[in-house]
Amino acid sequence: xxxxxxVDLKDGHxxxxxxxxxxxxxxxxxxxxxxxxxxxxxxxxxxxxxSGDSRDVARGIRYATDSGARVINLSLGGSVESTSLTSAVxxxxxxxxxxxxxxxxxxxxxxxxxPAASDLTLAVTSTDINNNVGLFAQRGEYIDIAAPGVSICxxxxxxxxxxxxTIASVSFNNKTYDYAKFSGTSxxxxxxxxxxxxxxxxxxxxxxxxxxxxxxxxxxxxxxTGVIPALGSPLWGMGKLNAYAAVxxxxxxxxxxxxxxxxxxxxxxxxxxxLLHFTLVDExxxxxxxxxxxx
Length: 295
Description:
Elements: H1 13-22, H2 54-66, E1 71-74, H3 83-94, E2 98-102, E3 122-127, E4 145-148, E5 152-156, E6 166-172, E7 175-182, H4 185-202, H5 208-217, H6 243-252, H7 260-264, E8 274-279, E9 285-290
Parallel strand pairs: 1-2, 2-3, 3-4
Antiparallel strand pairs: 5-7, 6-7, 8-9
């Protein structure tokens, strides 16, 4: 919500999801996110109870896409397909954005959740520490990948008003930061989204479709009960997320295109006046002041 003082639900769901993706490393506070160097763009599309209109979600997706996001995480879903929402996801995909969506917490017999049920998204289900699918996790042929989503510790907002137990409070610079364990495919989605960010950090020239394929092709199928068929399982999709293998495969695919700097730069807003940090392939980080991104 533009101009809002906060963009979270009262149970701290958004803060928890954001922390899983990109909590800062090496600051002596709390946890470290999957991709601690990522830039986050929180967008408020639901009310304080976690309910809302699919048209608002659609507007949020379009806003994120137009703002330059390369990965969109949707830790939400509904039981009915929405034309406006599907159109927005299609818009994002056509603009080269990878849309990651939680598959839903409706248990085994629940109808597919949207937009995860769309082939346009990377649909994520949950596993626990023992590689079991979470009891709450939905089943379905639409599921692409499984990732940790049971008792996941992350930050929660200090104004949290819910039946969740704070497991730790950390004081730093006269401020208190709270942490709690949540479970759900809402937690699994940001784990996958964070790994997608790591893949793009390793190889920024990959397309969204290539990142999606890497996530699926490098999935682990060991330590599961039964064998995952070639086309995937309604329980786990193509298997359990393998972050290390996916990033290593992305590095192996690095091929710097001609005019790579021109292709790699994507500056918002344009023009800008600010200090940019960037790294050239096989060189040390550089700094430059951009006065006009067009000139």
